[in-house]
Amino acid sequence: MEKSNQKKIHLSKTLKSNMITYGIVIAAFIIVQTLVNAGQVSSLMKGLLVPLCIYSIMAISLNLTVGILGELSLGHAGFMCVGAFTSALFSVSMLETIPNAGIRFFFALLIGAAAAAAAGIVVGIPVLRLRGDYLAIVTLAFGEIIKNVVNVIYIGKDSKGLHFSMKNAMALNMESDGNIILNGAQGITGTPKNSTFLIGIILVIITLLIVINLVHSRSGRAIMSVRDNRIAAESIGINITKYKLMAFTISASLAGVAGVLYSHNLSSLTATQKNFGYNQSIMILVFVVLGGIGNIRGSMIAAVILTLLPELLRGLNAYRMLIYAIVLIALMIFNWSPKLIDFRKRYFHKNKAERKRV
After folding, report:
1. Distance, CA of 101 to CA of 111 (rounded, Å)
2. Dist CA 42 CA 37 (whole Å)
3. 66 is in which domain, residue-wise?
4. CA distance 161 to 158
5. What sign for the dihedral angle of Cα 245, 250, 254, 259?
């Protein structure tokens, strides 16, 4: 009887926490949309709405690998790159075949997510045998390789179909009616701008649903047991490779979804160091660390704050990056200082005890 009551209390706490997370996202959308409709949001801030959704998805998905699985991955931008370019390639080549923008974007999302998941499986099978720094180095190398491979690929389309080359655009040998879709380092131009704030928020909620339900499922508990004690998990019959690959693939697939949203927010897409390079992966990792490793809601909030902060401080110019660095350090101390962690625990339990008395 006591066990069943404890289980009910635990379920209600989990449900309450999840509802708060979804509520934050929905409330943020309603508030921002109201401000936009009232004309209170500048054009600069409007341009940041979709990137906020992109970085939130990236942070949530990376937290699945770093926080829930317990493996350090520095190639997350590579999976985003795969999703961005495969979906953009599909959308540009299907502009005439599928004139309906909504249906075309839906298929682009599926293709981008599937391509990133496939890349996750291909990379994950050999790479997840490694641990710690070795895994981080290999995933970092993957991200850089993907970016450089995309920059030497040329794809065109004419009446005969698609043409592929890794030399130059002339080597495609297309008919006179042909168009170059992917032009090496110049990337893809003419991608339809289908990404909106509403679509971004819907994808953030779907990402939260997938990750939170996975974490609280049987598979999620198996993944966390592998993280906490690999030997003990293996001794009770948990298939370590299966669950590690599952978490890594889902994380990569969600990064691909963020890539689709990213590519359809720009008219021109290029694989540069700024977009899909090492710094991008590190920035997403910073969101996860500052939001709390394993804390899905925290990583999402950190992504929003740290994306908005540089733009909000743009008016200060000379001191902008200094203030940004101070905020990063303050957040790091607040989240990871042992004394502050103890203080938050004591304060939380004190308030909780007072509420029970009332």
Report:
1. 15
2. 11
3. 43-151+187-312
4. 5
5. positive
Max distance between CA atoms of the chain, in angstroms, equals: 81
DSSP 191: -
pLDDT digits (tens, 9 = 90+) for 220-237: 888 888 888 888 888 888
Written as six digits, the tokens of 37 are 């409709």
Nearest to 71 by CA among 184, 176, 223: 223
Contact 260, 84 (CB under 8 A): yes
Average pLDDT over residues 193-218: 91
**Residue for token digits 């054009």?**
43
Q: Mind listing the pLDDT tens digit for each residue in 82-134?
A: 999 999 999 888 888 888 888 999 999 999 999 999 999 998 888 877 777 78
CB 295 within 8 A of CB 21: no
Parallel/antiparallel/unpaired status of strands 188-189 and 268-269? antiparallel
Tokens at 62, concatenated: 């990376």
* pLDDT (tens digit per residue) in 290-342: 888 888 888 898 899 888 877 777 766 666 667 767 777 777 776 666 776 67
Structural domains of the chain, count? 1
Identify the pLDDT of residue 272: 84
Residues with Cβ < 8 Å from 112, sequence gap 6 or more?
82, 83, 84, 86, 87, 90, 256, 257, 259, 260, 263
Is position 254 within any domain? yes
Per residue, the 3-state secondary structure of 204-263, as one string, reads HHHHHHHHHHHHCCHHHHHHHHHHHCHHHHHHCCCCHHHHHHHHHHHHHHHHHHHHHHHH
Average pLDDT, the chain: 83
What's the CA gap between 287 and 216, in Å, rounded? Answer: 22
| Model confidence, pTM | 0.86
In a domain, 319, yes or no: no
With respect to residue 307, please indicate whether it lies within any of the assigned structural domains.
yes
d(CA 7, CA 79): 38
Query: Is 244 inside any structural domain?
Result: yes
Residues 6 or more apart in contact with residue 182 via CB below 8 angstroms: 85, 89, 150, 153, 154, 155, 188
